[in-house]
Amino acid sequence: MRNFSDLNEQEVLALAISLEEDDELTYLNYAEYLKDTYPNTAEIFRSMSTEETGHRHRLIELYHKKFGDFIPLIQRTDVRGFMPRSSVWLGRPLGLERIREQVEAMELESLRFYRRAARQTRDASMRQLLDDLAAEEWQHEARAETLINKYLTPEARDEEGKTERRLFLLQVVQPGLAGLMDGSVSTLAPIFAAALATHNSHDALLVGLAASLGAGISMAFAEVASDNGSLTGRGSPMLRGVVTGAMTTIGGLGHTLPFLIPSFHLALTIAMVVVIVELLVIAWIRNRYMDTPFLSAAFQVIVGGVLVFFTGILIGSAG
After folding, report:
1. What is the CATH number of domain 4-152?
2. Do 141 and 105 touch, CB atoms closer than 8 A?
3. What is the pLDDT of residues 198-240, one digit of tens each?
4. Which of 95, 208, 268, 312 is least buried, going by the fewest C-beta atoms within 10 A?
């Protein structure tokens, strides 16, 4: 990699052209990525891409006048000091807030680049263009606000907000809730059966760890294999698998960890209290995100949990 201060004026201009092309394509990628779910925001990024195209054309025109037709390919990865930037394709799935944060970082980096490049060059025409582009990058925030007001009407904002919430439900809440319910309920029977059969905290802990981790791995793979999200809109199967597996494991570990306490009866009592808390949390999540009445959600979850719990007690007592 080269230091920016070591670049000559031809190389600075070639780098500027490459950076503008990167920004132009990045905005187009954002627009393409968002066009189905957030069409109005996608139009904003298309407009910003068009502005970057104009910047690139002005840079190329000046380059031709100064240095001829051949433009060496100098990229951001060839010069020290630039922030690492992953492609939109590698970063998916992306939320609106994450995209807006990345865009702000892009614009700030471009502003700093043009200001430093203008200070480094001695050519009057180059300095003028670089200063002008720095000023335009500075104004991009205001320009973005204008585009937001143009394309994101109150109705569009409301619709995109609903879409974002729907995607969050599909991609995070639903798989997480399914995992939490499975981990909290399905592990009750083996853990309490082992506890009551052995009256030993250590044995119950081992069974609980095995059941929780095993259920987490199983649920993660099942979620990944369920669908790839292309038709259902449920997003990345890997993300859903991680969320489901993690929440399944957490659900089982909640009433497993009390058995770290050597006193069996104390550990058993705390584990039972944790179970009640887990079931109420599940009911609250269903009420908060799935619009299920709390009493109805609590009744459904508690009935299922109690049935599994007593199954474990019966099996453990028989042993």
Report:
1. 1.20.1260.10
2. no
3. 888 888 899 889 988 888 888 888 877 765 554 445 566 777 7
4. 95
